[in-house]
Write a structure and sequence with these properties.
Layout (H helix, E strand, L loop, with lengths): L4 E3 L4 E6 L2 E7 L5 H25 L7 H15 L8 H48 L8 H20 L6 H50 L5 H18 L4 H50 L3
Antiparallel strand pairs: 1-2, 2-3
Helix pairs in contact: 1-2, 1-3, 2-3, 3-4, 3-5, 5-6, 5-7
């Protein structure tokens, strides 16, 4: 580097710059060679910084912004620098850095565009699935699974929002409006469905409570045949009534079955007593038959 400068009789140091030369400074109380080497070392440090920055261009983890910030600082120090060295070589290296920075920015821009496209496609899948769930016919919806899946889709959406890839504001806003509309529509349909179901279950509960009252009233009847037919009709009505809430259904069914069992157990007990009473008649008739057969052995 020192070969690109000189020191005059007064100790001033010069560097070749283009077709001429310019003064870069002086180094008091030093020999001409020491003064020249001092400014040559400053050039070497500046060139080494530029070379290191050039090497970082090819490192994927180093962003174009980092390179740009380093190049900005380098330009400030390389503008008519007070150094001695091959200034055209330094200028050429800086020019390569600028070209490399432009290419790196273009590559990053292309990568961001691809990442945005991929992120938009993933968001579109989330929105489309939410719309599909919301569009299901009410009678075919599996509410537990669909509600859980809709919540999971919201969690996926939030995870994408926290990710590194940001969609354009207008694109994200349009997708969110569709997603929100699907979620709100599904929630509204679910609330309406369960409100209607609750009302229907209330009506069924009322019907079954009335059937239980009738069954308990009949449980002590001794009109066996008529009451057995009445219980059969009540059972048919119970089946046609549908479902109340599970807890209500279980509770009412226990009362209904207890009343039914009480009647049929009493009926069976009465039949058993009659059978026992008739067993004596059977024995008498069998004795008469045996005697008759002895009298007239045909």
């Amino acid at each position: 580097s020192a070969a690109f400068g000189r020191v005059d009789e007064e100790g001033k140091v010069y560097v070749r710059d283009g077709e001429g030369e310019r003064e870069v400074g002086s180094y008091p109380d030093a020999t001409p060679d020491e003064a020249l080497q001092y400014f040559a070392r400053k050039y070497d440090e500046l060139y080494a910084s530029a070379h290191l920055l050039h090497q970082r261009l090819d490192v994927p983890d180093v962003s174009a912004k980092e390179i740009g910030d380093g190049l900005k600082s380098l330009r400030e120090h390389a503008h008519e620098p007070n150094v001695v060295g091959d200034l055209p070589a330094l200028a050429s290296l800086i020019a390569e850095l600028e070209a490399g920075l432009t290419a790196k920015r273009q590559a990053e821009s292309a990568h961001r565009a691809e990442a945005k496209q991929a992120a938009a496609a993933e968001r579109e899948k989330i929105v489309a699935e939410a719309e599909t769930i919301a569009a299901q016919p009410v009678e075919k919806v599996q509410w537990k699974q669909s509600t859980a899946r809709m919540r999971a889709l919201l969690d996926e959406w939030k995870a994408h929002q926290r990710g590194k890839v940001r969609l354009d504001k207008d694109v994200e806003s349009a997708m969110w409006q569709r997603f929100s509309k699907a979620r709100n529509g599904f929630d509204k349909t679910r609330r309406a469905h369960f409100a209607q179901l609750e009302q229907s279950r209330g009506e069924v509960k009322h019907v079954k409570e009335d059937l239980v009252v009738q069954a308990e009233r009949l449980s002590t009847s001794t009109d066996w045949n008529a009451t057995a037919g009445a219980f059969k009709r009540l059972m048919d009505e119970w089946r046609r009534a549908g479902r109340a809430g599970r807890a209500d259904d279980d509770r009412l069914w226990e009362r209904f079955r207890a009343a039914q069992d009480a009647f049929f157990n009493a009926k069976d007990a009465e039949a058993a007593e009659e059978d026992e009473a008739h067993r004596g008649n059977l024995e008498v008739k069998e004795a008469i038959l045996a005697e008759a057969q002895a009298l007239l052995p045909v």
